[in-house]
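The freezer alarm interrupted the setup, so I double-checked each line after restarting. Inputs confirmed:
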Amino acid sequence: MNCEEAKKLMDGYLDGELDPIANQKIEEHLRECRNCDQAYKAHGSLIRAIGNGTPYYKAPAKLRERIQSSLREEIAKEPVRNVVEDFPPLFPTGQRRTVPSAIPWNWLALAAAIIFAAIITFNLMPRLQRPGSDQFLATQLIASHARSLMANHLTDVASSDQHTVKPWLDTKLDFAPPVVDLSSEGFPLIGGRLDYLDNRPVAALVYERRKHFINLFVWPAASDASKAPKTITRQGYQLLHWADSDFNYWAVSDVNVNDLQTFKQQFATRTSHH
Amino acid sequence: MALLLNEEHAHETEDSDPKIVKFTVVKKREEDHAQQVEPTSFEGAMLPHLDAAHNLARWLLRNEQDAQDVVQEAYLRAFKSFAGFHGSNGRAWLLTIVRNTSYTLLKKNRAVDLTTTFDEEIHGSGDVAVSPATILERSDNAELIKEAMDELPAEFREILTLRHQEGLSYKEIADIAQIPPGTVMSRLARARGKLKECLATRVGKENR
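Predicted 3D structure, all chains:
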């Protein structure tokens, strides 16, 4: 590989998006060419500077409310038409004309629509969620993760110091979860939280990755539970499960799979030394 | 001035026309009327990505009010075609809609957009060499990066946001920005180069 080609592939290499062969070739070239190696290091630190320094515009709370209420309006509008068409008339055609004005009729239809939606929600949803305990747990995990980001309740104890987070959790729980800060590995610890999952209180450790959050749920492993690692992708979230001799771990985030795998490895490596 | 204009035109041909995309969304909506969309499942699947949606729109439009309007409209569009969405990557799907909605507005405001973005003074001397370390040392580097980002064409702001802030893969970026996967790396390289230039000019000018 010459300098020209190396320069062209530099961004892909830094982003970890090259195929293994191209990766190997560029690494060989960087070992041999001092100029390109310097350019590579400078470009790498520029990319990190941009990544860390670019302000992230979080949505203001009132936008969430605006969207939710506009969705409500839309929902109220849409099913009304379907429900009215699908239902047999409540009154014989002759009498129906005597129903005064369109407004009460709309209210009836609206009420029907709401009841309809409620029936579907309460009857069908739990059944849909029931297949397999893993799927049910995954739903709980995603809900818990999403809720932690939605409401102002990401952490109960906000600290990047593992020696602050761990004692706090120890006093609140009947077990002592492992807590490590992974800042040097690119996953700074943000804090800890109590949560309730799988019918028991659990520890939630919060880590950050490029402005995205990772919730790591930890609770004691049941002796008969499967230790096999699992990955689940759902609704754009990645869920990663693993277990060691003492604990069950579930990491939930919207970072990509590779990042989450790296996170798991770093966490597992660091905790096994303790 | 000519350089920036050319770049904008080049991207215009590279990208598919948002109008076509808009049409397919409308079409889908009609087919989906027969299916019942569960409102709770839509909110559960899509509201967690509100920050990502807002951040992308805000960078594309460079204006808070426009960003909020676009995000709200994008959510409505997404809701109406939600029954047709069977993929697993809800964030990428939503961001595609946000992106298209933003571009529709950008194109409408294009005349204004172009005249307000370019400043001959700032772009006059692009050959000042400033190392990334100098940029990093700046205590106000967030503000600096923001100003430099806002100078870039929309296509560059978009790709930098998707990669650096959302951490998306090249494949996901290609889908959202509607460009061939092979184009992502070169566009990202150009965007970073241009951003570096803008940063260097700003830092260099102040140090003089």
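Quick read of the result. The two ends of chain A are 44 Å apart (CA to CA).
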